[in-house]
Amino acid sequence: MTPPVVRRAPGKLFVAGEYAVLHPGSPAILVAVDRGITVTATPAAEDVVIASDLAAGEVRLSRDGAGLAAGDGPPPVVSAIEAVDALLTEWGLPLPRIRLEIASDLHEDGVKFGLGSSGAVTVATIEAVLAHCGVTLPVAERFRLALLATARLDPRASGGDLAASTWGGWISYRAPDRTAVLSLARRVGVGEALRAPWPGFEVRPLPAPRGLALEVGWTRRPASTARLVAGDAVRNWRAGPAYREFVRRSGECVTAAVEALERGDDPALLAEIRGARRLLAEADDTAGLGIFTDGLTALCDAAEAVGGAGKPSGAGGGDCGIALVEPAATTVDRLREHWRAAGISPLPVRIPAPERTTTVISDRKDDHVRLALEHHRPHDRNEFDDIAFVHHALGGVDRADVSLDTRFADLHWRVPLYINAMTGGSAKTGDINRDLAIAARETGVPIASGSMSAYFKDPATAGTFAVLREQNPDGFVMANVNANATVEQAKRAVDLLRADALQIHLNAVQETVMPEGDRSFSAWAPRIEEIAAGLDVPVIVKEVGFGLSRDTVVTLVKLGVRVADVGGRGGTDFARIENSRREHREYAYLDGWGQSAPACLLDARDVGLPLLASGGVRHPLDVVRGLALGASAVGASGTFLKTVLDGGPDALIARISGWLDQIAALMTALGARTPAELAGCDVLIRGALREFCADRGVDLRGSATRTRATAPEQETLHDR
Question: HSE of 428 in the Cβ direction (CA atoms, 13 Å)?
């Protein structure tokens, strides 16, 4: 039985830029709210069945030669289905029979609040239908499909509500020319139009105000944005010079408000919101647009009476307005008292951090890739540089005698190098995984998936992970889950990839800094123990870049873990990456947290658990250094990611092949016939790494003279 697909899209509030945003490229500020539309998709016996809590009975749509016979179906929903159908038709795929159940909390007793219900239902419908069909699109392409669906009904619609419903949170938005994109879709097809440049279009996230509360008041008077915008007054105004001047001044106001938000300047933000109100009032007075009702005027006046700023949200004429005020309870209570006295109902609306699975997880995965590249510093010094080999001029062996085979924990790898866990969960990262898998297949290196949490929350992302096995059918592939995963989820991850091993990643520091991260870590150890006992493949526990201490490795042995990947500091810094995604970047002091991979290897070298090394691996010498400190194999991520993004799989194949040749060459010069023999080479430990060992009580005596313990005695001239 096909499980139901559930998608929810939030409603929106316009903060600034109404009416001007109708002009392509003119900026607006919007914010998503915690009320929205939920669409549930299930298989149906008829072509399309739509049931809504806002309408009596069900609507049944049948397919004919021209598409869907709309009947009495809600236009935004029907247009959204038709947009997906058009895309599938271009791909030669049928739209399966489908039932959509729509539930809204953007209304009360059938009366809308003015929080963008049409936009929210369009976005939720498109996402639900796509997921029901097993189609994954990048977030920007889902938005574009929603805008095409909306513009077919009304090309005047800006799409700001769609952007807020798609991305969530606070955003700056600039609309494309809707007539132009409709023409583009007719000319080149929907699929090509989704990927083509849309001049003027821009969406970017904004931080929330630092010290202001956003309050929402409802006038209880419904208004139709479409009717207001299509009316004679607005049409005549937009055709004249007064509108062009309004657009110019609004652009200046919104730009200043965006800058105020980004630098956390609340007084400047309040000034710009008051300015936005004045602009709307002047336009209303001049052109008779019908924006301000008595209720909306009272709403705004009340906000200013308590020291804040207020304005209509959206086209006006009723619906709701916003107030930005000091968050003190006394101030908010006074505002609400003023509103109630004027017949305005305070709406219990919150502005949550974006949390929607289908949008936020894929966005976050794409953010991780982007920020990892921005922070990638392959030439920075790290603690691998504190390791030096004692050079023995007559210690080399023949290259023909060198083998890269490595064996540990009943595993046999052809090489002591692997592509470590990176990504998956969005269309873009699925493409990256495909290219990584091709490179792994051609070079014989093992490869690990990125965290598969997105797959558990949204099965539509399965293909972005499964491609690792599809492109690499005979290679060694590792699945990857977090330490909160259940045994059932771990088995699902292994089954999806037909994985040879399972990585469980530990990332408490990353989750702590991540805005939407987990905050519960006490169940990790028992979950790891359950998974290790319940799986038929080896379990490898890894850190994501903060290191495993000796104490942690000892605990892992007790939990039944077969292998540990120390995942040390020095490479991709996920505390820094997640902090870059926070509004105020308040965790900057955690940059560089944790232990390096070399420190972890030395700290835990006598525990007896096979260790893998990753984190800060920049070149083949770092691989050899890690092996010399006792690692069974060494993994790299950042360098390989940048290579594949810059040059595709061919470039990564060349790089990995070059690394393997150089690793073998270095082993030849060092006299090591196997990776395991590197652990017998003489090494010097210096700098911060030596200080760490001293503080942790790691005995380095003998590290620089290991060959003396194994070398046979040789007769010298002095002995003759």
Answer: 17
By residue count, the chain amounts to 720
Architecture of domain 1-201: 2-Layer Sandwich (3.30)
Q: Which two tokens stand for residue 527?
A: 């979950």
Please name every residue paired with 59 in a beta bridge, in sequence order, or none if there are none: 50
Q: How many CB atoms lie within 10 A of CB 195?
A: 12
Return d(Cα 445, Cα 636) in angstroms, integer.
11
Cβ(678)–Cβ(627) below 8 Å: yes
Residue 174, strand partner residues: 27, 202
| Whether the Cβ atoms of residue 543 and residue 566 lie closer than 8 Å to each other | yes
Q: What is the per-residue DSSP string for 210-274? A: SS-EEEEEE-S----HHHHHHSHHHHHHHTSHHHHHHHHHHHHHHHHHHHHHHHT-HHHHHHHHH
| Residue at token pair 């990790």 | 524
d(CA 362, CA 366): 6
Closest CA to 351 of 170, 517, 204, 172: 170
471, 442 in Cβ contact below 8 A? no
Distance, in Å, from the CA atom of 37 to the CA atom of 445, rounded to the nearest integer, reads 46
Tokens encoding 75? 């236009």
Q: Which residues contact 393 (CB under 8 A, 6 or more apart)?
A: none
Instruction: Enumerate the domain spans of the chain.
Output: 1-201, 207-354, 367-709
pLDDT at 367: 58
**Domain 207-354 in CATH 3.40.50.720:** no
Task: Classify domain 367-709 by CATH number.
Answer: 3.20.20.70
Mean pLDDT by 10 residues, the chain (720 residues): 84 95 94 93 91 82 69 85 94 92 85 87 95 88 95 94 93 93 94 86 87 92 70 87 94 93 92 96 92 94 96 88 94 96 92 52 54 64 95 93 96 96 80 93 96 81 91 96 92 96 94 79 93 96 96 97 95 82 80 94 95 95 97 94 90 96 97 96 96 96 85 48
81: Cβ contacts below 8 Å, ≥ 6 apart: 48, 61, 68, 95, 98, 100, 125, 129
Contact 638, 366 (CB under 8 A): no
